[in-house]
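User: quick one - fold this with farnesyl diphosphate bound?
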Amino acid sequence: MFAERLGKLLGDLFGAKPKYITVPVSTAAPAQALPPDRLPRHVAIIMDGNGRWANARNLPRTAGHAAGTEALRDIIRASDDWGIECLTIYAFSTENWARSKDEVGALMSLLLRYFASEIDELDEKNVRILILGDVDGLPAPQREAVVNAMARTRGNTGLKLNIALNYGGRAELVRAARTLARRVQAGELAPDGIDEAAFAAELYTAGMPDVDLLIRTSGEMRLSNFLPWQTAYAEMVFDRTYWPDFDRAAYLRALREYAGRSRRFGKEKAEGSNG
Ligand code: FPP
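Assistant: Sure. Structure tokens for the protein plus farnesyl diphosphate:
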């Protein structure tokens, strides 16, 4: 009870909306707060609420995306500091092209600016960048920036930062099915050779662990065509915070929520285990 009240007080002090806090957390020492064996290997984030954040401040939606990019910078740094193996963020879906020309233009400019300003630090921190999605469908400057970032960081062995860009989950599955069909047609693979491992190997996330924790901000509770295969057994945390306000304290709350969950993968409950 005391811990709950203190947690709420801390949340209020730092401007967060405590939805999941049950015990006070230290943003400075997550390793102490979270045992490494309770950390998710793969975190995926739907960064939602930029538009509403801006609206609430009488700002244009594009200002929300700019503020969201700032939040993203710190969440990436935190993931790296805290030893998360893979972080996948939903930056731009195939459906997002339907937004106004101004908004799409602003998101594309932010993307260029992001890569220009961050790539040196990310590379220095040994972060490996991978784009999930149809890179060929991006405008030339953005395509060039992301292809260069991937090439430059290909050999890095630290945090795997996956940026879903021009990404659609169903399109990813169709793409994998087509590749497998071509391999069967070429006689390289028998139809019965298509198993879950063969399918997963054709996804953008080939070789990576499945998503352990999916976070969506802004209070919306849906997947929106994000990583349908990889999230099959993911734990989900929905936080009411709008993405630009999602900070380390909010991230840590989600990680603590995850650490307290009992993961069963369809089996019977294993006492005291989330793995
Ligand atoms: C959803 O909020 C957010 C997006 C569609 C874009 C997310 C992009 C960023 C945070 C920054 C750009 C990314 C990089 C890698 C530089 P929304 O606009 O749907 O918000 P709303 O639901 O409140 O309208």
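One thing worth noting: The radius of gyration is 19 Å.
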